[in-house]
Structure formats: C-alpha cells, structure tokens
Amino acid sequence: MRPVSKQTRKQRGFLHNAPLHLRRKMISSHLSKELRQQYKRRAVPVRKGDEVEIMRGKFFKKKGKVSKVDYKNYKIYVEGVMRKRTTGIEVQVPISPSNVRITNLNLEDELRKKALARGKPTKQ
What CATH number is associated with residue 118? Predict the structure, then answer.
C-alpha cells in the first residue's frame, strides 16, 4: 500500500482522482451486530439492494433498501428517504455511507457470497 499524506489538499486530491476499484471500497458501512458475528468482519462495501439503517442526521433511525450508489460523489440513496424541492417534486436525499449501518446484505450475486466467505476477520 502506498504512503498516505497528512495534508488535507492531498487527501482531497486522492479522493477526487481515485479509480473505481478503490472508490467501491471507500463506500463501505459498518455491519449490524448479527452480521458482524456471522461474517467475522466489521464493514463491507455498500451495494444496491442492501438494507440499511440511518444512524445520523435528519433521517435518524429510518430503514430502507439502497436504491443507488453514487461512486462519483461517495453517496448512497435509500428508498423512502425523500425531501421536497421548492417546485414540489420529491427527490431522494444523498447520504454518506459512514452514517448508515447495514442490517441485511443483498446476496443475489455469487461473487459477493464467496468474497464474504473468504474475507479476513477484522478486529471486533
């Protein structure tokens, strides 16, 4: 792994220019206690279809499925988390993945099942 700078401008530059395979890892959220014990890891990258609980902000304790993952802006969109625009249109609110907890994983993809099975255990 390459050395990481303490300088804020370089941190922002890295986030701005990060390739997709690293952006995916950066959009990770903590797992619920049950999932943590089951998969022996603390966090996993968020995917469309995962069920999450919002832990911070205006929509605290709301639960829903992830409807979209925005890799460009490092945000996720949860079904049912909406706000009204001044024109009256309801739009989904972008949420930082660090502010949610995954309560149920979308395991339709075989590759994700295999990745969770072989993953290294992390500190609890």
Answer: 2.30.30.30
